[in-house]
Structure formats: structure tokens, C-alpha cells
Amino acid sequence: MVASASGPAPVVAPVVVPVTRGAEPNRPLSPIAEIDPTKVVWGEAVEHEHVFHVGTPGAGEMVVGVWSCSPCTERIDAQPCDEFCQILEGTLVLTADDGAVHEFGPGDGFLIPMGWAGTWHMPVPVRKTYVILDTDTDTDTDSETDTDTGGATDAA
Prior knowledge:
This protein is an all-beta fold. The protein has no helices and 13 strands. The radius of gyration is 17 Å and the shape is globular.
């Protein structure tokens, strides 16, 4: 605890941040542009996101959010981080460079490991929750986070 002229600094207790039950379904998402347009091989990537939590920077920080995208196909040369996803709406077809194909729909969860290469095909709009372990400690999030409110506030 750090003392100041007015007394000790308040202690902020960690809070649970709801991501899906009661928090996510009506969550307004902010426009973002994470997908490199030169990597889109079909369609147009129109993305939106809300970041619920960005962990403390260090050897790796955890980023938790919800993301949506219009129908498109993105080429991924090397997944930059480990990412766990759960599909809320839509269909996602992952095709690895070795030919392995995985199709995911609402309720399905999966992990894309760092270094994975292939295509991420969304034939219909997709909405997912995600957890990323980002080893790039310079994480840039354009969306507002809810870590201090337990998910009680909305993004602008």
C-alpha cells in the first residue's frame, strides 16, 4: 500500500468479470481493424470487439474479449499467440496448411496454438469469445475494458 498526504491508497480487490452469462449477449462492440486486408483472400473483414480484461504486462499478458466479423477468409501465415475461442454465433472453418479441416459452430471451443498456419474461413458472420496469451507486452486495445467494474459498464 502506498501512503499519500491524505492517507493510505485504497486497496482495489480483484473482481470477477462475467464474459458470457448476462454480460455478453447485448454487449455493444467497437469497430476494429485487426485483420490485415492483404491477408483477406475472400470477402471483406468488418470486425468489432469488446475487451473485457487485459492482464498485467509481464512475460505474457492475458487478453479476454468478444469479437465479431463479417463473412471472409483470412490467410494466417503464423498464429502470433496461443488463443482459445468459443463460437457464440456463426460458423468457422479452419484449414491448416497440412490439409486438416476443423469446422466450429455455436458452443464449440478450440485452441489455436502459436505458430499455426492456414486459413480462417467464415462463410457467415461470426461472433466469438476469446482468451489470448499475448507474449507481446505492448498489447494495444482500442476497446474499453471492464476489469474495474465486473463487466457492469458498456463500451462507448
